[in-house]
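Hi, here's the filled form for the chain we discussed.

Project: internal
Contact: R.S.
Residues: 264
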Amino acid sequence: MSRLLIECTYVFEHPEDNSGIQRVVRNIINHLDDKPRSRECIPVAILDGQVQQVNSLQPVSSVIPPKVMSKLNRLRVRLEMLQHRYWRKHASIEQRGPFTRSRNAHRALYVLAQLLSLSFRVPLKALHVLRRIETRNARAVPLEVRPDDVLVLLDSSWHSNFFQTTEALKKQGVKVVSVIYDLIPLTHPQFCDEGLVRVFESWFDWVSETADAFICISDTIAEEVRSKFKRSDLRNKQINKPWVGHFHLGCDLDLSQQPGAGDS
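And the returned structure, exactly as it came back:
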């Protein structure tokens, strides 16, 4: 029988964050074993292109304080996204006139691009080493994914950079289900940070093409998603038409007894 891989990458990497989505993710993960289930549910984080089974969302004793590690993780994600945009731009430039006609010009462009990329490749390498050191303490261990598994993107995956890994899993036969909390950056961008709007728009375009199904946190959000797909379908006849459903959130506030937990 297929397993449900419940993705919680952001909460795993930022255990001190405690806004609405983090509370939902943490409570669902912490209650996976409360009742017998017909399917095995495994909490996972996608780290460095690999699916890891999460054994603990809470950090253990470490040389690096959790808040510092959280900031480093945010920096790593930004650098990964910068790297992705950088090489896409490079691919676009190398298709232009002189670089297609001259092998020497093409080679010079490549060498220059490699040299300039050191500005983010070197710090990225260091940050990846730090993360491997942090996860070596058995908070997460590698998981062998099966072709009939279902990956549930429960966490705020627009803050992560595992799109290529998810696409590779789909090619192996894994189904992808995305949880939608709201579409505020799309429907009311004036109330959101401009950077978040760009990131969320890019993520929603990607997840619209990638996910096999969507689960929203209310019937209202589900209707907004269906409406969004209908409008997109008018512009693009090839857009998939995934299943869209909803579930209801609870009201438990985890970490409520910890200092500063209500500040987010």
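Let me know if anything looks off before we file it.
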